């Protein structure tokens, strides 16, 4: 699975936590789906 990922590795827990904190702290970001996948999903 990681062979097809542009980053070449899975997201680290710290990277996912960074996004979780950003979303929790921002009242302006609502109803979003954000992929933390190293570029695997590019649309």
Helix share, percent: 25-40%
Stretches with pLDDT under 50, minimum 5 residues: none
Order of helices and strands: H
Overall outline: elongated
* Class computed from helices, strands and strand pairing: mainly alpha
Largest sheet: none
Q: Can you count the beta strands?
A: 0
What Rg do the Cα atoms give? 12 Å
Quickly count the helices.
1
Average residue pLDDT: 85
Give the N-to-C terminal Cα separation: 18 Å
Beta content comes to: under 5%
Can you walk me through this structure?
By secondary structure, the chain is an all-alpha fold. It has a domain at 1-27. 30% of the residues lie in helices and 0% in strands. The longest helix has 13 residues, at 13-25. The protein is elongated. It starts with 12 loop residues before the first helix and ends in an 18-residue tail after the last helix.
Which characteristics define this entry?
0% strand, elongated, 43 residues, mainly alpha
Quick rundown:
This protein is 30% helix and 0% strand. The protein is an all-alpha fold.
Draw up the topology in text.
Elements: H1 13-25
């Amino acid at each position: 699975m990681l062979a097809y990922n542009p980053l070449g590795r899975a997201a680290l827990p710290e990277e996912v936590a960074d996004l979780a904190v950003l979303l929790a702290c921002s009242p302006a970001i609502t109803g979003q789906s954000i992929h933390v996948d190293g570029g695997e999903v590019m649309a």
